[in-house]
Design brief:
Elements (H helix, E strand, L loop, with lengths): L1 H30 E10 L2 E5 L4 E6 L6 E2 L4 E7 L18 E5 L4 E5 L7 E2 L4 E6 L5 E7 L11 E6 L2 E13 L26 E8 L12 E7 L2
Antiparallel strand pairs: 1-10, 1-14, 2-9, 3-5, 3-8, 4-7, 5-6, 7-9, 10-13, 11-12, 11-14, 12-13
């Protein structure tokens, strides 16, 4: 008899649990947009020599903090020569050129080696502003209409999974992610065209990263509070 009483109760509990789970899933999907297609981004600038020459000094190392205008190396410029290899008549003499950091930041790449020959445009160092990091998340085009500038965002970064960072939507890029790809995602002229859902990059400002060593390129998950 007791078994006959318990069975309907258990069935009712199971139905209520399923209904509650379904309600939470729909409600959470209504008030939030979640995606793990996101990563930490920031300003990374390359430093190069304006002239060919030799890198005679290199005064920084990987991880060093630098300020805007700080000298990080010196190039001894190569004097113009004639076809015979001698200095050209009236040519400029060799001169030293200071290579400086364009921003306050941290040296995150240092491919140059003191003493090497350098050419214009080739990166000697890369400087990143790690105090002004953002998150770039890719939002499905079907949901982008619900995303607005200044909406609150919760961010988790895979490397610090126990921490939730606060932020807000800073900018919605006016182009799909595929627009920046070097290779087209589809050929519209082909008879085998398949429609593919596009993604819109959304830039999210972080209020703070605390003392965590967050760097550009780290994977992240975001929850945008859309309602």
């Amino acid at each position: 008899m007791r078994r006959m009483v318990f069975v309907p109760i258990l069935i009712m509990i199971a139905i209520l649990a399923i209904a509650g789970g379904a309600f939470y899933w729909f409600y959470n999907g209504y008030i939030n947009y979640q995606t793990d297609d996101a990563q930490v981004t920031g300003h990374i600038l390359s430093v190069s020599s304006p002239q060919p020459g030799q890198l005679t000094t290199l005064s920084v190392k990987l991880g060093d903090k630098v300020t805007a205008g700080q000298t990080i190396g010196t190039i001894t410029a190569v004097a113009p020569t004639t076809g015979s290899g001698t200095p050209a008549a009236g040519g400029a003499k060799s001169s030293n050129i200071d290579i400086t950091s364009p921003i306050d930041g941290t040296i995150v790449q240092l491919p140059a080696v003191q003493g090497q020959t350098v050419t214009p445009g080739v990166a000697l160092a890369q400087v990143a502003d790690l105090t002004n990091l953002t998150i770039t998340a890719y939002v499905d085009e079907g949901a982008i209409n619900n995303v607005k500038v200044n909406q609150d965002v919760d961010v988790t970064i895979d490397a610090f999974s126990g921490t939730t960072y606060k932020g807000h939507v800073q900018n919605i890029v006016s182009a799909t992610a595929s627009s920046f790809s070097l290779l087209p995602s589809s050929d519209n002229a082909s008879g085998n065209f398949t429609k593919v859902s596009q993604r819109i990059p959304v830039v999210i400002s972080l209020n703070s990263t605390g003392n965590d060593n967050v760097v550009p390129g780290m994977s992240a998950e975001v929850t945008i509070h859309v309602h």
